[in-house]
Structure formats: structure tokens, C-alpha cells
Amino acid sequence: MGGSLPVRSVSPHQEVVMPLPYSLRRSPARRASTVSASLTALTLAAALTAPGASANSGPVQPEGQAAFTANGTFTVPAGVTQVTFHAWGPGGPGGPGAGGGGGAGGGGGGTFPPLISQPKGGGGGGGGAGGSGGGGGGGGGGGSYVQCTLAVASGSAVRVVVGQGPSTGAPGGGGSGGNGGAAGTTFASGQGGGAGGSGGNAGVSFLNGITATQVFLRGALYPTLRALAGRPGGGTIGSSEARGGGGGLPGGGGENGKIGQSGGAAGPGGSPQAGGPAGKSGFRGSSGYCQGGSSVVRQQGTSGLVGGTGGMGLAGAAGQAGRVGGGGEGGVGGSGGTGGAGGTGGTGAAGTIAPPAGVGVGGTGGTGGSGGKGGSGGRGDTLGSPANTPGSTGTQGGGGSSGIKGGPGYVLITW
């Protein structure tokens, strides 16, 4: 017999019977057992292919993270065989500011000429020039970043050293003020004031202290990974240190009156010196490195900006000329120049994961010291009284300020 039912022409309301497959052309009991076995096989196959239920898959590694803002030890949790380290180096400190120059001394007052019936008094001494300002320190460089994935053993210890960055150098001290010039005598003009001293240099900032963020596997001969600190802001461009502004030049002494001629000429004001040079920028941290890892990412921070140049000291005012019946007043000393502003620090490397705010940022450079004020010129002499006077001593320049410490390092461990 054939394996299918006969096909007949049917009306729209009649049922159509399709041929049965050979596997189902058996007894009802046999067909039921065949369908049941097929469903069981499908259920088993679905169970074997479900996520996490494969016979070949191992235990799933747990997930977590640990952050370090200070030195510490990380113990690898049970079941963890691979971790990723993210390390940021600290920012470099800002460079220190240079000292301001000292103000120049004022010139001494002149005296009257003898043996003249109507003598003119001596001229007043010129005021000393103000010292120039010291240069500002450069901004520190930003720290670097390194990411490294390593195979580890559960229970093993990892030593974490979070970098704190190097220290900044010492700021420069202010220059001494120049001495005032001596007053003139009957046969000599008043003397010029002395020049102010130069401002002190800013100290060189060495890479001392902890300069890198490091991660060591216990017993390893080498650091497993290291993120370097940004370099400190330094001295002048092309030099190893920041130089202070020069002291103001001296104001000239009031001239003595001449016999049979006009009275004493005014003492000239002191000339200003150029301001202190700018501080050198801090360089960014070099790319870190990873020993024996995979998926390594290295990034550098940015360089710090150059510190500002110190301002120029102002000239002192001229002394007044002597006149009949009176001596000239001394000129006022010039103001000192302002110190240069410190440079802004560089930014730390961004990393593939954003670190906390401030991590790896370079410190701002210190401000340069202000220049000292020039001394006033001495008063010119009048016949009889009052007597002429020496010039005043210039004031000492201001000291520079220290640079600001850079932002800290940071370590984030993920698994």
C-alpha cells in the first residue's frame, strides 16, 4: 500500500488531508514515543548551549576594583587570575621664584660755593632707581599614565607605591639695597649712591623624593609597571637656575655749586635695570612602562608653562637745583619692579579611566620677588643752616616664593 491518503477534489468547506511522513506512518503508541524522544533531545541541546552551562567553560572570575591614594599592599582575591593596573604619576612642582633686586642708594646733597656774596645752595642728590623684579618660576609638568594587564595568582601580594612627586627648589632671596652717597663738601660734589644688589637665584629643583607611581609583584626583580612624575618647573631658558633681577643703578649725587657760577646741578636719577628673566617650564612626565604585561597603554602629561619675566625698576627722580638762599631737595627714589608671575602647571595624562580631580597635575610656579625701592637723594646745603645730607640707602628687594607642589599619583586595580 502507498504511504499517503488519496487526494480528492474538495469544495471550499471540505477538509484536506495531507500525506503523513514515513516516520509517523506507524501505530499511535510508536508515534507518541518518537515525538517525546525528539523533544527530550531538543531540551538537552538547549541546556548544553545556554550561557554559562557549557561543559568546556571554567569558573567565572569575580569582578571588582581597588583604589590606592597612598602606599599599600593589594592581595589578589580568590578566583582572580588576571588584573589590570592603571597608574598615574604625580605632577611636578612649580619652580621657585627668583629674588628681586635691591634699590639703589640716593645721591648725596651738594653744598654751597664759598666766597660769593649771594651763593646758591647745593643741588639735591638724585633718587636711586628701584630694583627690578625677579622672574617667576615655571609651572611643573603633568604626570604620565600607564595601563597594564597582568596574569596573577590568587592570594599573591602586590606592593603599591603611590608617587608624591619631587620637591621644589628654594626661592631666591632679595638683593640688598645700595648705600646712599655721601654729602658734598665745600670743594667736592656730593657722591652718587651705590647700586642695589642683584636678587638671589632660584634654587635648582632636583628629582629627589618619590617621583614615580609603581606596582611591584612580591619578589619581582623589577617594577612591574611605573608611571613617572612630571618634571619640576626650572630656571631660565638655557640655564639650570632662575636668576634674580639686577639691582637698580645708583642715583647720581647732587653737584657742588661752582665759584662765581650757578648753583649745584641736580643729581641725575638712577637708571632702571632690566627685569629678571622668566622661569623655565616644567617638562611632562615620560611615558611609563610595564614589565611582562599585555594591553599596555602609555600616555604623557603636558608640559608646564614658562614663568613670567620680572618687571623693570623705575628710575629715581632728579634732585632739585640749588637756588639763592636755599639748597635743592633730594629726588625721590624709584619704585621697584614687580616680580614675575609663576607659570601654570601642566595637566596629568587622562588615562583610559578618568582619575580623581587633581591627580598628576603640575604645580604652579612661585612668584618672583619685587624689586626694592631706590633711596631718596640727600638735601642740598644752604649757607649756614641746614647742612646738606647724604643720600638714603635703597631698600632690600623682596624674596621669591616657593613653587606649589604637584598633584598626587594614583593607582586603580580592576579585575
Q: How is this structure best described in words?
A:
Residues 89-111, 120-129, 170-183, 235-279, 328-349, 359-381, 394-407 have a biased composition (Gly residues). Residues 87-129, 164-185, 235-287, 328-407 are annotated as: Disordered. Keywords: Plasmid. Residues 382-393 have a biased composition (Low complexity). The protein has one helix and ten strands, in the order H-E-E-E-E-E-E-E-E-E-E. By secondary structure, the chain is mainly β. The strands form two sheets. Strands 1-10-3-4-9 form a five-stranded antiparallel sheet, with no helix packed on it. It has a five-stranded antiparallel sheet with strand order 2-5-6-7-8, with no helix packed on it.
- The unreliable regions are 1-55
Overall 3D shape? rod-shaped
**How many helical stretches?**
1
Structural class: mainly beta
The chain-level mean pLDDT equals 79
Percent helix, as a range, is under 10%
- How many individual β-strands? 10
Give, in spatial order, the strands making up the sheet with the most strands. 1-10-3-4-9
Strand content: 5-15%
Give the topology string: H per helix, E per strand.
HEEEEEEEEEE
The biggest sheet, with number of strands, parallel, antiparallel or mixed sense and barrel status, is:
5 strands, antiparallel
How far apart lie the N and C ends? 69 Å
Cα Rg: 43 Å
Biased composition (Gly residues): 89-111, 120-129, 170-183, 235-279, 328-349, 359-381, 394-407
Keywords: Plasmid
Biased composition (Low complexity): 382-393
Region (Disordered): 87-129, 164-185, 235-287, 328-407
